[in-house]
Amino acid sequence: MVPMAPQPGMVPMAPQTVMVVDNTYYGVSPVACVCPNCRASVVTNAVASPGLLSWLACAGLCLVGLWPCAPIPFCMAGCQDVRHYCPACGVCIRTREALG
Ligand SMILES: [Zn+2]
After folding, report:
1. How many angstroms separate the alpha carbon of residue 52 from the centre of ligand 1?
2. What's the rounded mean pLDDT across residues 43-66?
3. Which residue among 13, 60, 64, 84 is least crowded, i.e. fewest CB within 10 A of its CB?
4. Angstrom distance (rounded) from CA 84 to CA 99
């Protein structure tokens, strides 16, 4: 009899974490989703507002002498926080933070 050697590859599987994944990508554009508040199938109203990244980019541009460009981050949705509102009930479904 050959003694049983520890088998590599027989490592017990790590327990699978079951979690609800919201696959909807909330970017800077309106997205179609189901409102968690009124359960309506809606296309969100995406509203951009300056967030932390806007101010950081603004400060950074000033620091490197590009202060004439400092307002640009406030005009770029990609540098801003975007809130997705339900057009039916007006609730804020999701906030996309530029930093996060
Ligand atoms: Zn709603």
Report:
1. 27
2. 95
3. 13
4. 16
